[in-house]
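dumping this here so i dont lose it
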């Protein structure tokens, strides 16, 4: 499978598309003014401790206080000059015995602020490098679960020897990343030294800077492309900015030498995203409906609590019988759903409503295909089996806002509901409001200011009801059309 990475850079925004065999698989967007916070380390200040919720609010200098749950507090052990940290399986100490209001606390963002929720924090710091993840508060040496099980023990022993050698200096734990599987001892030792140097700089800043200061910032999206997205299957990394190309090549030469030769400066006249119609793909990723090649389609609805995905046969009638039609549609949908989760960066609880299948063998085949497609995701996913209602429940780890939340905002007319009251419903609301106000106030006249379509309805089809209300309250009612008003908006002016 061939993979190309396209980078469209502008001073205000960086956009990255991962294309496999001509199809867009992932989209990443980072805006200069809205750069993500995941991975950043702050010196926070505890603003409030909530024993009932076993959590605390930490001020890290953002608009909203960040959230720290007791499960994300790396518990300190008693004794010893240097601070030690207990294992996560140790008995949980209540949060009110671990942190207190006004305390300065080093924390790391593990989830960006999403919607009305503040950032989620952890006191366990981890710093990602090119080949390794450094855990300065731990002594654990581990290997990524994505590396084949047969190779893990040998890699763990090799890493343990490197970490424990005198030449490496210092303590801390390390986890070998997937792209470090084939690295040499020299490359690993170099990454160990870089990560320990970064941690020493972070620790020094925590002693020097005041609370609510940024101590360590994760790499930019451009740099994370080389660190996280490039693999053996990547054939090229094309970027349309000469200045950023030069900076990225220097970064790659120092930290990711295997990725540096794949970098190319795109000089074509057409915008780089036009090569694979990526802007059109972004537009489709913001819509509810996703058409399948067979004629079926998906309906994707994203809410604050969860995301629902409904599979429909649509116009697909190509199979020999109805069961085969449903089976083929569900098989195609399994791959399309996994791709949409990556494209849209959907996270949290996801409910998939495949078309009902009568044969258990078909259910097992669709579920196996779905899990196979999910296994390609860089983000952790977990899918259950079919429920009694024929639904598949799954989760996808959410660390950053979805594509829709990043690029869109709620409709000012419907406030994100996706529906508006009809003009007739609004007209009846107006009549009820006039009657309510007539019982409290006694003006000379009532004037209704509303959208043109509502005023037109009151003057035409509902004129009899309006006249009857005027006679009943004994006051004249005048109408004023206001084109700037939405269909649900209106004002009753007392004259």
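and the seq i came up w/
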């Amino acid at each position: 499978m061939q993979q190309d990475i396209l980078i469209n850079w502008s001073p205000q925004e960086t956009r990255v598309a991962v294309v496999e065999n001509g199809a867009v698989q992932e989209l990443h967007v980072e805006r200069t003014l809205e750069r993500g916070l995941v991975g950043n380390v702050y010196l926070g200040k505890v603003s409030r401790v909530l024993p009932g919720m076993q959590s605390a609010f930490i001020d890290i200098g953002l608009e909203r206080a960040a959230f720290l749950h007791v499960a994300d507090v790396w518990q300190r052990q008693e004794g010893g000059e240097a601070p030690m940290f207990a294992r996560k399986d140790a008995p949980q100490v209540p949060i009110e015995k671990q942190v207190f209001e006004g305390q300065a606390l080093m924390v790391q963002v593990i989830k960006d602020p999403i919607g009305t929720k503040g950032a989620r924090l952890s006191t366990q710091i981890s710093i990602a490098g090119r080949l390794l993840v450094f855990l300065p508060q731990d002594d654990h040496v581990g290997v990524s679960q994505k590396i084949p099980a047969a190779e893990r023990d040998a890699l763990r022993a090799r890493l343990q020897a490197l970490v424990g050698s005198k030449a490496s200096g210092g303590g801390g734990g390390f986890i070998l990343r997937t792209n470090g599987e084939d690295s040499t001892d020299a490359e690993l030792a170099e990454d160990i030294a870089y990560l320990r140097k970064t941690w020493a700089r972070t620790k020094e800043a925590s002693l020097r800077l005041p609370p609510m200061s940024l101590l360590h910032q994760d790499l930019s999206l451009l740099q994370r492309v080389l660190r996280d997205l490039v693999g053996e299957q990547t054939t090229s990394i094309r970027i349309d900015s000469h200045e950023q190309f030069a900076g990225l090549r220097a970064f790659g030469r120092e930290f990711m030498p295997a990725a540096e030769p794949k970098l190319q400066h795109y000089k074509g006249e057409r915008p780089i995203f036009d090569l694979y119609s990526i802007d059109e793909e972004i537009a489709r990723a913001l819509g509810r409906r996703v058409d399948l090649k067979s004629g079926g389609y998906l309906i994707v609805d994203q809410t604050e609590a969860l995301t629902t995905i409904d599979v429909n046969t649509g116009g697909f009638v190509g199979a020999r019988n109805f069961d085969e039609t449903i089976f083929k549609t569900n098989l195609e949908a399994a791959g399309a759903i996994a791709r949409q989760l990556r494209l849209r960066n959907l996270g949290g609880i996801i409910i998939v409503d495949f078309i009902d299948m009568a044969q258990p063998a078909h259910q097992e085949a669709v579920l196996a295909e779905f899990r196979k497609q999910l296994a390609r995701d860089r983000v952790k996913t977990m899918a259950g089996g079919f429920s009694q209602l024929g639904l598949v429940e799954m989760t996808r780890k959410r660390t950053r806002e979805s594509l829709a939340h990043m690029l869109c905002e709620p409709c000012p007319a419907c406030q994100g509901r996706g529906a508006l009251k009809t003009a007739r419903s609004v007209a009846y609301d107006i009549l009820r409001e006039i009657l309510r106000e007539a019982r409290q106030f006694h003006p000379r006249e009532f004037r209704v200011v509303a959208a043109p379509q509502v005023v037109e309805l009151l003057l035409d089809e509902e004129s009899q009801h309006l006249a009857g209300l005027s006679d009943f309250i004994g006051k004249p009612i005048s109408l004023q059309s206001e084109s700037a008003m939405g269909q649900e908006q209106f004002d009753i002016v007392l004259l």
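The two ends are 73 Å apart (CA to CA).
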